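Give me the fold.
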Amino acid sequence: MKLEFENGLIDSDIYKELGFEGFLALFQREIPMVGHTILKPMERQSALEHFQRLIQLDSQIRVHQADLAALVQQGARLPSLEAVLPFFRDGVLEPYHLFELGQFVSEELDLRALEISFPLPTAGEICRTLTQILRKYTTRDYSNLIFSTEEEAVQKSITLLNQQLQKALKQVEKEIFQQTGLKMVYPFSREIGKDDEKLKSVKACSYLQISEGKEFLTLDFVPDDAIIRIVTEKSKREKEWNNLMACKLETLNSELKEHYEAFSDYYQCRSKRLFDYILLETKEQHQLCFPKLHPTPLFKLEKGVLPSLRKINPGSYNPLTLEIKNGVSLLYGANMTGKTTVLKTVFFHLMCVKVGLPIPADSLTLSFPNQLGLRLKSSGKTQTGLSGFGEELQFFCREDVSPSFYMVDELFHSTDPVSGVELSQAFCEEYADSESLYFFTSHYPEVLNSPNVAFFRMKDIPESGEIENLEEFLQKVPFEVEPITADKLKGSLKSGKQSIRVALHFPLSDSLKQKLRKKLDG
């Protein structure tokens, strides 16, 4: 199984940057029934049913101590019948189709035995019914049809006639060689030159006829009466055999066809269950969790992970714990303290929920995201003809289907500071009472006066101790979010010089660092 997002569901740059490809690869399995799967955005009700089913199945597997790996392994033995089902539906299954169908029901019955405590929610007896029908007409391994006495007699006669024909033809080929010195193989023609020294003996051979071409002569077999009699009888018997097989297959298909609808439903149900097993196995292998969908607007994440970032910095990576509610939440913090990463992490988890995947976190409780938008800092794109400011305005030009989640990095820093402040204030006031969740990062202290807005900040880097280099600095950054009141945040922004401290850990010139230290002291 290979997972892929529906085309256009997510911006390609964000897809790469957030490491979705690597995360989706965790679910990849070699299971014929569950091949290339396109993940599409769900509606709330279908997502609710999806996660409830997964949580219930997960619980049943744990209660009954079932071997999830064995379930997936047995599921991988089931052949895909996508190419067989149309023939099944139309009642025109051929022997090789019967073999595939037989292999499926055989392996399926073994899989059902493993999940007897939590069977598929559909009539499983259909597989036993098909097994009984197939057993009447095919051998034990479903590879051949079972023949009646009459059919066996016809088959044996065809075999005997084939042997007689081969013997007669071999004798003819031998006599041609003795008479002409030419090796002929029935029924193939042969070319010789018009001045070939063997031409005289060829013309005298009664088993060959000559056709004249432009440059060469073509030699063909002339079968004698004995061979003609054998070929005629063989053709007659083969026609009889084909009629018998057509009648047998028609009878067999007639018995099977009435069970097509039940089997097709069962097959689809099995495919979904195997997909669920893959999600559960991946969840178990990589310590993922299923979200809990909340009826009211909420996002509460405990130790959420952005896998691509943790892979880069496994030693210093700090999972995200965050709780935000509807309306506007503003996140402040110095550069390089992780504000943008917070937005990316939230978006990553929301997108997983949107398409029905387990998530890399200890827990997540949230209202289902009817719509989902992430706007990172940009200078604009030539494809749209819009500036960064134009793209940011366009981001908000969408119908709000509450509750939804919208995130913007550095709200209105795409324009001049005076206009940016006023725009930010106006937009925060507009969305403060919304049922959707708006989560913005900002540097504008003036926006702290906005009413009914929740404020957060990135925890500061510890001031104690000397940090010698950039690598050590990155390990010291806490990358943690904390809620804070507007008054405390105002004081922090007024007195804080975190960005200057951050700059001092880059390999800048000594003279420039000296000027920065004076700014800190002053």
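Residues 2-138+257-285 form one domain.
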